[in-house]
Amino acid sequence: MIRRSVLIGTGSALPRRAVSNAELAQQVDTSDEWIVERTGIRNRHICADDENTATLAIDAARRALEAAGIDAASIGLIVLATATPNQTFPATATIVQDALGCNGGIAFDVSAVCSGFLYALSVADSMLRTGMASRALVIGAETFSRILDWEDRTTCVLFGDGAGAVVLEARDVAPDGPGILASQLHADGAHNELLYVDGGPGTTATVGHLRMKGREVFRHAVVNLAQVLGDVLEGVGLSSADIDWVVPHQANQRILDATAKKLGLPPEKVIVTVDRHANTSAASVPLALDTAVRDGRIKPGDLVVLEAMGGGFTWGASLLRI
Ligand code: UT7
Predict the structure, then answer these.
(1) Of 69, 116, 258, 317, which is most buried with the most CB atoms under 10 A?
(2) Of all residues in the chain, what percent are helix, strand and coil, respectively (each to 5)?
(3) Of 52, 86, 224, 279, which one is the catalytic site residue?
(4) In the annotation, is 279 catalytic?
């Protein structure tokens, strides 16, 4: 038997308001045709005044707990990935903890932008396997609409708000049983200037706006994602042919296609939600995972690989059996 973190429930939440490309084209100089052709995005959800990163995270977490059939009181660890916390501090994870009523355990945020959920999952997995807690909530939640420059058409059309959550439980399982099998994480701070926010509490005392050199990020994304996916599989003696599903970070349909092609993965094995949700940063992987679990594609026993790449740069992949 081997100690693993087993996924026992998933959940997600989106703001009430959906915004189509056509609606955006009334505010900025863009078109549905350009956005669909270059990115695959057709729609995104945008928060109203009474919605924020914590409310989305709480809704996603409640749905994940419900799917797992467990009470919030048994959650001893909450790791929340976000680049758009409700406040500079306290950690948004502590707001979620209080709303769920599981106070007293461990709760903190992780900042790795679009790779945040992969970082959070890996941290929670390590802590569960070393006995720091027996059940964890891992959440990716973002409100990028609040850090976008709505006059910059090269970025504002690409992102949306949302949250996704998973419940993990430490269990002793057979080697071919369920759980997280392997994870790999990377960061390379040399590329900070390609994707960043031009403000922050420690410098400008403002929140700032997202800035991105999209074409260069695109190029790095395909190379890094194909590499880390290949490495995580090779590390456990598997190949892309063994994979049932890839749940990628949803930044651009063309990145999903190029990465799958590089690895020889058929497009039918790639979960795609970028058309509906746009890029929701740390929320995109758990949102896509929950979508595919709920619509019945991802089933118990399936071998699933999650991957993401984002600002920093940061990137990573996790392999798990459901
Ligand atoms: O989640 C973190 C990771 N982020 C990513 O992975 C994003 C990666 N990058 C991308 O997805 C793509 O590079 C973009 C979607 C951002 C841009 O696509 P592209 O094919 O690289 O286009 P481009 O930046 O080379 O721009 C092509 C043209 C430009 O016009 P000119 O210079 O050729 O006249 C832009 O001004 O498209 C123009 N353009 C637009 N036109 C209409 C840029 N944004 C828009 C827009 N609507 N929204």
Answers:
(1) 116
(2) 40, 30, 35
(3) 279
(4) yes
